[in-house]
Amino acid sequence: MALMPRLRQLMRRPTSASTVGTRRPRSGEKRGDTVHEDALRAMLVDDPNDERAFRALAELVRRRAAEGPATDDPLAAPVDETEKQRAADLAVWALAEELAGHPKGWYPLVELGRLSLDDDQESALRRFATAAERDPSGRALAQSMEVLRAAGLPAEALGLGVGHWRARDHDPEVGRQLVLAAIESDRPLEARHHLASLVEHGDPQGVATLRTDLERAVAQAEQHRAGT
């Protein structure tokens, strides 16, 4: 559904007492940005897992935070680029934290986990686990595992996946992430086991598009482990 018709539909609903996702008024805002932000926030209040709306709003608040407050003081020191990046990350953190208060909000938790992974791995893993528990489709689990693998933590991704994967119910992408995490953890036998479970219990149509590449990856890992 287009953005503005969606917003008008949301505005006709009875007002909620919840403040999750509510924009905090700020001075000096541009009219266009304000309307755009309100529309995105309305969509996220309705569905906190709308990834496109979240990314668009995150980019908006990140840009605003990086720009910093306007000043006409010629003697003001230039803002350090590192500080700009930190301010932008904190703005996205605050947004994700607001939306994570929604009882079904898993995508904001994945973002919080990603942002906190370098500084507090234990808290990040807890956020990923909570996100996985909130999402019956498995998308939260797959994305969380992908973040961990990209951060060079395949063993942690494997542990998260083993603890939450339901092959019959989840998107086959979860199984793919699990197999790859096992390979990257140098556990080809475990990778083979997870691949067999994916083929046996996963959605046949979804698995068919992944199986050939995964079979090849597992076979290569087994050969490497055997030293051939």
Q: How much beta, percentage-wise?
A: under 5%
- From the N-terminal CA to the C-terminal CA, the straight-line distance is 54 Å
Tally of helical runs: 11
| C-alpha-based Rg, rounded | 21 Å
CATH fold-level assignment of the largest domain: Serine Threonine Protein Phosphatase 5, Tetratricopeptide repeat
Based on the structure given, which CATH architecture of the largest domain is correct? Alpha Horseshoe
What order do the SSEs take from the amino end to the carboxyl end, as H and E? HHHHHHHHHHH
Text of the CATH class of the largest domain: Mainly Alpha
E-strand count:
0
> Judging from the principal axes of the Cα atoms, what is the shape?
elongated
Helix content: 55-70%
Taking all residues together, what is the mean pLDDT?
84
Main sheet record: none
- The figure for the number of domains is 2
Structural class, by secondary structure, is mainly alpha
Q: Which ranges are low-confidence, i.e. pLDDT below 50, for 5 or more consecutive residues?
A: 15-23
Biased composition (Low complexity): 1-14
Region (Disordered): 1-33
What does this structure look like?
There is one protein chain. The chain has eleven helices and no strands. It has 228 residues and is an all-alpha fold. It has two domains: 34-67 and 85-134, no CATH class; 137-228, Serine Threonine Protein Phosphatase 5, Tetratricopeptide repeat, CATH 1.25.40. Helix 1 packs across helix 2, helix 2 runs antiparallel to helix 3 and helix 7 (139-150) packs parallel to helix 9. The radius of gyration is 21 Å and the shape is elongated.
